[in-house]
Design brief:
The protein is α/β, with parallel strands linked by helices. The protein has 14 helices and ten strands. It has a six-stranded mixed beta sheet with strand order 2-1-5-6-10-9. Strands 3-4 form a two-stranded antiparallel sheet. 41% of the residues lie in helices and 12% in strands. Helix 1 runs parallel beside helix 5 and helix 1 packs across helix 6. The N terminus is likely disordered. The protein starts with 10 loop residues before the first strand and ends in a 6-residue tail after the last helix.
């Protein structure tokens, strides 16, 4: 659920920028959170940019950004986002933070949500915020992040991570995925989907960044697994076997599994389960179908199976999920009473 300050103002998002800022990442945060509005058209977020020394901030382009706010605003922020800097790509000798960013991180109030985009994760790691947590960064920098911060569980194959209020995104565009994820967590899929539509981006991308890592070309032409994925999405209500998927792609099951992982960044079973969970979330939010019928419609078969998968993915039961996003009682959320 969204976090609001005691004053009743919208959720405040503070973007902590550094010299060498990647301008696209700053734009992503302002554009996506800035588009999120309530059913009455009221802004749901207030986005402010800050830097250790207010004034002109150098970017990775031929422009500078004038930042008016200092890091004192971090003490009142509900969410703090740290974009990347071109200086993050310089050779690293030690896992430390310069005094400016270190003092800025220390200003963040307890309980605030903290996120990074791309190599902004190095700032969070150097501050100790990622110790013991699963985190990601751009795949080119993942090995450096792990080497410098061995206590961080670096996962270079995902688009973003979210653990205990600390979030990280992979590359620049993964910042879009991360912002939509936070908006969805705060206000539900309907608001996040409207923001995605307004930005003309998919509300959710399949797989991870493994599909973007260059790999040796082993053949002049390679069949795609996309036809199999398209077919599976049209048949989520029924059992789908690996053999059926491979047949749709005219491959052996072994070749199909390997190609699928290369293209989607996850196994066919992981992808299929994820698609079923996403479809179930949509039905729970947008329809009055009882939980057992939702389970059947997405291919989980039984309400018990749906509960297990939804809890594994989101940490909540179907009835609790529906109650959160539709404002109904637990009994109504189960489909046993009027919606």
């Amino acid at each position: 659920m969204p976090t609001f300050r005691s004053s009743g103002n919208p959720h405040r998002v503070a973007v902590l920028v550094r010299d060498g800022l990647l301008t696209m990442e700053l734009g992503i945060v302002h554009r996506l959170f800035g588009q999120a509005v309530s059913s009455g058209g009221e802004p749901l977020y207030e986005v402010l940019t800050c830097t250790p020394e207010p004034g002109d901030v150098r970017t990775d382009a031929d422009v500078t950004v004038r930042v008016a706010h200092g890091t004192d605003i971090l003490a009142e922020a509900d969410t703090v986002i740290v974009p990347a800097s071109d200086e993050d790509y310089a050779p690293r000798a030690a896992p430390h933070l310069p005094s400016g960013p270190a003092e800025a991180i220390a200003r963040i109030r307890p309980g605030a949500r903290i996120a990074s985009i791309c190599t902004g994760s190095f700032v969070l790691a150097a501050a100790g915020l990622l110790d013991g947590k699963r985190a990601t960064t751009h795949w080119r920098s993942a090995a450096d992040l792990q080497r410098l911060h061995p206590d961080v569980r670096v996962d270079p194959g995902v688009l973003y991570t979210d653990e205990d209020g600390v979030l990280t995104a992979a590359g620049v565009a993964s910042g879009i995925d991360l912002c939509l994820h936070m908006i969805r967590a705060d206000h539900g899929s309907r608001v996040a989907n409207e923001v995605a539509r307004g930005t003309v981006v998919p509300p959710h991308r399949d797989g991870g960044q493994a599909q973007y890592i260059p790999r040796p070309v082993t053949a002049a032409h390679r069949s795609s697994t996309e036809p199999a994925r398209t077919w599976a999405l049209a048949h989520l209500d029924r059992p789908v076997t690996l053999r059926e998927l491979a047949d749709r792609a005219a491959m052996s099951t072994r070749t199909f599994s390997r190609r699928f992982c290369e293209e989607a960044g996850q196994t066919p079973l992981q992808w299929l389960t994820g698609q079923r969970v996403d479809r179930a979330r949509h039905l729970l939010e947008e329809t009055d179908l009882p939980v057992d019928r939702v389970a059947a419609a997405v291919g989980f078969g039984t309400a018990v199976s749906l509960r297990q998968h939804l809890h594994a993915a989101l940490g909540v039961s179907p009835s609790a999920y529906r109650a959160t996003f539709r404002g109904v009682t637990a009994t109504d959320a189960d489909g046993r009473g009027p919606a």
